[in-house]
Amino acid sequence: MICIRLALALLAIALPATGFAEPIETRKIITALTGDFNGDGASDLVMVVETEPTDPMDIHFFLRDKEHNYLKPVEIVHEQVDAEWNGYDRPGYGNSDTEPELTLLPKGSIKVYLPALPQGSERTNQTLTIAYRDGNFIVAGFAYDSEDFQQDNVASACDLNVLTGKGTSSKKQPDGTTRHKTVSVAGRTVAFRDWNPGEAFSACTQ
Questions:
Q1: Domains and CATH numbers, the chain
Q2: How far apart are CA 183 and CA 136, in angstroms?
Q3: How many CA atoms lie within 13 A of 60 on its CB side?
Q4: How far apart are CA 53 and CA 31, in angstroms?
Q5: Measured in Å, how far apart are the chain's first and last C-alpha atoms?
Q6: Of 37, 116, 138, 196, whose CB is crowded by the most CB atoms within 10 A?
Q7: What 8-state DSSP symbol labels residue 193?
Q8: How far is Cα 142 from Cα 128, in angstroms, rounded to an integer?
Q9: Whole-angstrom Cα distance, residue 79 to residue 51?
Q10: Rounded CA gap, 165 and 183, in Å?
Q11: Cβ 51 vs Cβ 57: under 8 Å
Q12: CB of 133 within 8 A of CB of 110?
């Protein structure tokens, strides 16, 4: 894993300088994913990079320039990933238990899994589906599952297609049964850099 992170960091630092490029510390690369995000047949790159302790993390997007065969930095989405600091700067190198995960989906979309931070008894995991459309990385889908480990029958979940506004949600009832319902709101196109989960949570719980 260390070797992979080092190779990715050196690759990113060596890229031609553009307004979308920033120096990256090797040890701050939490995870990375390659795949064809824009459908041009070439392999692209996305990386989750730590910022500072207690601050949300950044996501760096690179698209491959097929003509010149290099990864071109196209966007940095700052502080959109809530996750636990990896602890590399502390004695003993304490690793995080709640690191984000990246998965390549069919047709080049990116699944960003954000596990709940270990705070309190209620934990809410989130999943975003990121797609490349018309020159922008947008949020195409949002899902969450929530549970309170200290209370019985306190749990809910939702899966929403942000583009269409259609989805489903569920919530446990006091008697232990689960109530399911259809979610239907106005569809919208939201750039990942402008994403705020508040509206999605509201749509799921209304």
A1: 1-98 (2.40.128), 120-206 (no CATH)
A2: 26
A3: 28
A4: 17
A5: 43
A6: 37
A7: G
A8: 5
A9: 8
A10: 7
A11: yes
A12: no
